[in-house]
């Protein structure tokens, strides 16, 4: 089954050209089924690029999914046309009374700024709190993962001496091999990272409500889950396109930052060589498993606050 998106969303044409099955909203209205409702809070500057990346991953499921796009505030964007935001994005005030099966919050280029100094930090906290009572399962990506671990669990984020940039080998934790989110995963796999900060693995290992599912000897923490299965924190970027790290690297060079060459990305670690794509199958499987086992299998058919509260109580009693 496909994802359901607005007929004129730019991502639609891109995904059709990639032979990905999507369904225009006009056609989906005639199907008598209960699709999953997934909300995406897109914090990235290039919103069209990021929404396309995420929709590509969400489309790889047998489930029909209604996707809605959310923006954090109404400030003008330097990288996304106002017409696009007005046409396809909703404000929090428009969705706050709704309930959703799944919720994805993207990263943001804020890795070197203290959370309390982020202009929309209070709004971000409000939305994260709202997700507890209005969403079955939430996935936080990169900066959002650090922000949520800080907000919900008071965990510290540490700045690195140098930006972590590249594609790194990761290992599934022995204790997590039977976790539904990791079904079908190889014991070792690759995933991209692009960040200035980290939450230490030891902090998660010492927290009673969280578990490390995947980490890396070099990149550190990668995938963390709350033990009730309703929150997942991904510190990397499984959604990245093949060229995304290259674009970031050359952007930083143009800005005079003198970045390190991304690790394990270019053939022979030479930016003049083609880049190697080694993470996309894992990224697809991660999102497919999340939708199947932690959204579809858990979500109440009648999606409302009362049923989500009952779901939370059931999880609490089973822990």
UniProtKB/TrEMBL annotation:
Single GO molecular function: homoserine O-succinyltransferase activity
Catalytic activity: L-homoserine + succinyl-CoA = O-succinyl-L-homoserine + CoA
Keywords assigned: Acyltransferase, Amino-acid biosynthesis, Cytoplasm, Methionine biosynthesis, Transferase
InterPro entries: Class_I_gatase-like, HST_MetA, MetA_family
EC number(s) recorded for this UniProt protein: 2.3.1.46
Keyword Acyltransferase: yes
Enzyme class: transferase
Function: Transfers a succinyl group from succinyl-CoA to L-homoserine, forming succinyl-L-homoserine.
Record-stated family: Belongs to the MetA family.
Protein name as annotated: Homoserine O-succinyltransferase
Organism: Corallincola platygyrae
Lineage of the species this protein comes from: Bacteria, Pseudomonadati, Pseudomonadota, Gammaproteobacteria, Alteromonadales
